[in-house]
Amino acid sequence: MNRDFPAVHEIWVYLSGSPLLALILTLGAYQIGVIAYDRANRHPLANPVLIAIVLVAATITLIDMPYPKYFEGAQFVHFLLGTATVSLAVPIYKGLSAMRGRIVPLLAALIAGGVTSIASAVGIARLLGAGADAAIVGGFVAKSVTAPIAMGIAERIGVSPTLTAVFAVSTGILGAVLARFVLDAVRIREWWQRGFAIGVAAHGLGTSRAFSVNAEAGAYSSLAMGLHGVLGAVLIPLGARILGF
Amino acid sequence: MISGLVQVLLFQGLGELVTHFLLPLIPGPVIGLILLLGFLALRRSVNASLDEMASTFSQHFGLLFVPAAVGVAMFWPHLKTHAVAVAAALVVSVVLTIAVAALVAKALSPRE
């Protein structure tokens, strides 16, 4: 009976030699995440990206696939991140007329949020005894900026781009999961204020969550992400020089 | 939808060119976003194909983070003794950042 079946290990070799396995894994895990998210009525704790990350990480650990090998195939999905970022111009453009009267609160919220992000992370790390590790403290500086810009800033101010990216992506996931609870606790009801706050703190992953809840929140979140990225790229290296990092 | 994708890719390419030759610190896609925004503001309209492309992307923006984020998940054990302090710092910091940004926006908004 066994002779009727193809040798599974041969297919396996063929699959892992092409990008197919990584792509199926990535998209399949995300699909499961989306189904779970919808079943849970889009509850923030059932974040589809978080579910997909856990599933993929567990699977590649289980089948002993090194991360670089996985990424070799998954890079095709990763590449589209840049394309998707460009396309955020559309929701921002559509929200532009409503934004005109809100420039002052938006810019003030961005600057206050950006300063809070850096100061609180560095302060708590010091309090808990990780403050002596300069590499870790350095990694916090650009963590609320979208990962690709954050890595550029890290290189410019001489801290580890890897740690910066790790903290930035982790921050994005935390923000996407926790935002609703925080915003409800401080009684923010306007979608534009909620969306903007998520985008300031949790860039792309927060924006993804915001879009899944409300289109206006998503547009403001992408605006916040873009502004934080551009202003952060200019102001953070400047601030680091003044404070003598 | 295809014509929308072509437009987005063109602006991404333009953004990469600007980054490469003029503004090395800001990544190409962000420049591409700003250029596309300028283009839309000049034309004063979004064509249907571009609109469809953009809404597909924004609905599934999260998917595109998965490959990089898996690497992040695999990296955490390397933080070893500092992992708890770092995680605590990240959680408290993101909570405070969201709260401060939202409260400042609300406090400075004109009453509606």
List descriptors.
heterodimer, A: 245 residues, mainly alpha, 2 domains, globular, B: 112 residues, extended
What report would you give on this structure?
Chain A is an all-alpha fold and 245 residues long. Chain A has helices spanning 8-16, 20-39, 48-62, 67-87, 89-99, 103-127, 134-140, 147-157, 161-185, 191-213, 215-243. In chain A, helix 8 (147-157) packs parallel to helix 11. Chain A is globular. The model of chain A has no long low-confidence stretch (mean pLDDT 88). Chain B is mostly helical and 112 residues long. Chain B contains five helices and no strands. Classes of the chains: A mainly alpha (245), B mainly alpha (112). Chains A and B meet through helix 2, helix 3, helix 4, helix 5 and helix 6 of A and helix 1, helix 2, helix 3, helix 4 and helix 5 of B.
Structure summarized in a few sentences:
Chain A has 245 residues and is an all-alpha fold. Helices cover 80% and strands 0% of the residues of chain A.
Distance between the termini of chain B: 38 Å
Largest sheet of chain A: none
Spatial shape of chain B:
extended
Order of helices and strands of chain B: HHHHH
In the predicted model, the low-confidence regions of chain A spanning at least 5 consecutive residues are none
Which regions of chain B have little confidence, pLDDT < 50, spanning 5+ residues?
A: none
Mean pLDDT of chain A: 88
Domain count of chain A, please report it.
Answer: 2
The assembly state of the depicted protein chains is heterodimer
SS field, number of helical segments of chain A: 11
Q: How far is the N terminus from the C terminus of chain A? A: 69 Å
Portion of residues in helices of chain A?
over 70%
Coarse shape of chain A: globular
Number of domains of chain B: 2
Strand content of chain A: under 5%
Query: Helical amount among residues of chain B, as a percent range?
Result: over 70%
* Main structural class of chain A: mainly alpha
Give the chain pair forming the largest contact, with residue counts. A-B, 113 and 76 residues
How is the biggest beta sheet of chain B arranged?
A: none
Alpha-carbon Rg of chain A, integer? 20 Å
